[in-house]
Amino acid sequence: MVGRDRELGQLTELAASGQSRVAVIAGEPGVGKTRLIQELLATLGSEYTVLVGTAEPGSLSRPYEVLLDAVDGRPGVDEFQLDSLADPDRSPVERLHAGLAIVDDFVGERPAVIVFEDLHWADSESAALFERIADTGGSRLLIGTYRPDEVTSRQPIAALLARLGRRYAVTHLGLERLTESDTAALLTTITGKPVPYRSVVAFHERTGGNPFFLEELMRGHENDSLEVLGEQPLPWSLAEVLRRQVDELQPPVRRIVEAAAVLGHRVPFDLLAAVTGAGEDELIAALRELVVLGVLVEDQEGQDDFHFRHSLVREAISARLLGREQRRLHEAALEALLAAGGSDPAMVALHARAAGRYDEMVAAARKGTALYLSIGSAYQALQLAEMGLEEESDDAELLAGAAQAAWLADLLDDAISYARRWQDRAATRSEQVEALYLLVRLAWDTEEEARMEALTDEVERLIAKLPPGAEQARAMTVVAQSCMLRDQTEVAVSWADRAIALAEEFDLPRVRLAALVEKGAALTERASSSDEGRALLAWVVDEAEKLGEWVLAARTLNHVVQNAGAAEPAEHAEILERMRIDAERAGIESLAVAAYFQGRARIATREGDLAAAITALELGRERDRGYEQRHLRRTCYHAVFLSGLYLEAGELDLADQTIEGLRSSPYATGLIVPGLDFHLACRRGDLAAAQSQLDQVFAALAEQSWRSGSQAHDLISAALFVGLPLPTLDRMGEELLDVHVWDAARTLVEAQLAEAHGEWAKALASYRVAADAPVLGASARGTAHVGAARCALALTDQPREVAVGHVQKAARLLCQWRGWRVAQLEEVRARLGLAAADGATAGVGAALTRRERQVAVLVADGLTNAELARRLFISPKTVAIHVSNILHKLGVSSRTEVADVLG
């Protein structure tokens, strides 16, 4: 079962509540209602009694069909009561009481789960029994399932649902189709290996995200190639299931739905009218019938576009038509589209190819590729470009579009292949420069540094041959980007300045903006020039948006987000949302999803909300379809970020799991894994393991060309925690810090080392500077205040109030944090005798963070984890962590006791 964790959690909570509960599950056929029930029943203990009955088509004439199905063949059922249930001479009330008696006798006093499946087919007596069972007490979960599209006002379930809503607190679960990510997870589960994105898209589009259809397509083909399987005809059994939806249609309506099936997934009303020759009234009547039957869906009111509820239905219908019939329909559609003018190039290309008119197909593919790239539909642009390349494999324009679209869609292997072919077939120097520009970026994205250097050298040789002008300026920008990405700051700025000068001389505004991005990004990497770089990037964003250069604008905003410095959280969040909008306009998947959620995590971290930061990264992992592609650089960064937050929170097992996943990443190079392994060993208190890791840490540092203040603070904090000797700490400080590390971060680390040496006055002064540095996040400043309080206590010339003041400031900064930083704060508070008196954390829930107190109040109100997740916009996993911490900190063992403690 995939994609139903939230619903399963809700049902599990209801079953364990110890009370009488009612849940109703709605969803289309095959969406997973029965599978969800099966998963729930598999989690129940042996103390539960389970009754499951299923209504069948035609059961409206068989009273109590669902109950009879549930008890059929079950031992211990009273035969007299069964006879009473079916006795037509008894009154309806007597028979209803007989049904209730059967249920009560079977269940007794035990906790029970009672399921009535397919209530849309249930008889009125079964519906009445379902309602009466809901009235009974005891620890019972009553579940009903139904298909909304098959409910009419004449069926018993319609009145049942209305009455249930008025009389009971019913939990309604609506099962939606699987998302692309869920489809990928299900395919991975079935095949036992990672699934290419193209296959995910193909199967998701083909099945509409219906898990039953997906499993039927895969049945017996688990080890086959997904690319080949995706093009195979439907299995006979599935095709028959789908065709039943239209088999009883009248011939005129069938003729229209067959034409619609050939025309494609989306069918405009006017195009269908032109192809079928149907009059408007006739077509409206036919479409209304098809919509009511659930075969077609109207896209938007007033848009006159329709699509098949399931692509497989369309496929099953069109498969019954002769090839000549299909070609004639495609030919008619193409003529209608060309006559109308201004039609979607994708539709023109599709019908031109099916009609065998390949010149028109290639022309439409070129036009459509450019169009879809301009509106940020990268994958659609790639599909069109590839359609055209099937006929014209050396077309430079199509190769350029395919390369750019594949890069935007994160299909990096495809992007590299197309870009190389584009470079080989470039007809002009301008095309050659653009191909090299993309190839350099792709070499960076796939961490082929040697390839990146070779390409950069090739660009430099080309620059020497080019006359001053647009091509030369653009080529210089390529070199500037390459140097910027490889942390060659001064060289990047030099090349960018040369490109900017040429762009200004020859009036090349777009080239000038691109060069300014590389210069601004390079400047932000150094503390001495970071303000200049951020100001430059902010100006570039405005100009790029004015020109509609959305890729450039999104990239620039990403640099701004990553180097926001001391920006206020609200300003930072505004920049982040702006980046996401521009990335979506450009079709840059990596910035619209992964970078966006990483940005949210950075904002939460800066504000000191650790739970929100972890939640943002977990959500990003769920929604970023590239996360499972281990060849992507960003997945490594994402995992490193998440590992660090787990280590901060003291979630050492989760950190260990995430670090383990990094070992197979080709991007987990240098200090990444050794540094995290060292950090984890320290936090586990394993001194021997930490010492054994040091050689790898120092070796990796020797190869690392840059230094980071946050990296130094994390590793030295961990080393102090585990108790490494002073000479080792000093060496770590020398290796981890250099002149380019930001002053505030370096000052904080120097304060930690001074304190370790017992230099209390020096450490206190440095801690105070760090605590007041706005460039540091709340957690780091809170730790600086804690360190300052410790040093003040160690100095005889410092009054107690100095330490108390620092503790109070630290408490405010760390109120939404947890883990080792909060533990250090509590140690100092205890030394000062403030553990039970300080206003920030005194009284009920003294050890709870602000977020935990918020969760605790909602737990006391009786909300389930799933309801909490929806209310607070966090993941169920994060809720579970909060609840576990709350129970532990309050010293209670159940959720009901939380309410007692809070009063």
Account of the 3D structure:
By secondary structure, the protein is mainly alpha-helical. Among the domains are: 170 residues, P-loop containing nucleotide triphosphate hydrolases (Rossmann fold), CATH 3.40.50.300; 53 residues, no CATH class; 101 residues, Arc Repressor Mutant, subunit A, CATH 1.10.10; 103 residues, Serine Threonine Protein Phosphatase 5, Tetratricopeptide repeat, CATH 1.25.40; 61 residues, Orthogonal Bundle (Arc Repressor Mutant, subunit A). The chain is 67% helix and 4% strand. It contains 47 helices and 8 strands. It has a 5-stranded parallel sheet, sandwiched between helices. Strands 6-8-7 form a 3-stranded antiparallel sheet. A hairpin with a 6-residue loop joins strand 7 and strand 8. Helix 17 packs antiparallel against helix 18. It is flat. About 1% of the residues have low confidence.
Task: Note the topology.
Elements: H1 5-15, E1 21-26, H2 33-43, E2 49-54, H3 65-71, H4 79-86, H5 92-107, E3 112-117, H6 124-135, E4 140-146, H7 156-167, E5 170-174, H8 180-191, H9 197-207, H10 211-218, H11 226-229, H12 236-243, H13 251-263, E6 266-268, H14 269-276, H15 280-292, E7 296-298, E8 305-308, H16 311-318, H17 323-340, H18 345-354, H19 358-374, H20 378-391, H21 396-408, H22 412-424, H23 429-445, H24 449-465, H25 470-485, H26 489-505, H27 509-524, H28 530-546, H29 550-562, H30 569-586, H31 589-607, H32 610-623, H33 633-649, H34 652-662, H35 672-683, H36 687-703, H37 709-722, H38 726-736, H39 743-756, H40 760-771, H41 778-794, H42 800-813, H43 820-831, H44 850-860, H45 865-872, H46 876-890, H47 895-902
Parallel strand pairs: 1-4, 1-5, 2-3, 3-4
Antiparallel strand pairs: 6-8, 7-8
Helix pairs in contact: 1-2, 4-5, 5-6, 6-7, 8-9, 8-10, 12-16, 13-15, 13-16, 14-17, 17-18, 18-19, 19-20, 19-21, 20-21, 21-22, 22-23, 23-24, 23-25, 24-25, 25-26, 25-27, 26-27, 27-28, 27-29, 28-29, 29-30, 29-31, 30-31, 31-32, 31-33, 32-33, 33-34, 33-35, 34-35, 35-36, 35-37, 37-38, 37-39, 38-39, ...
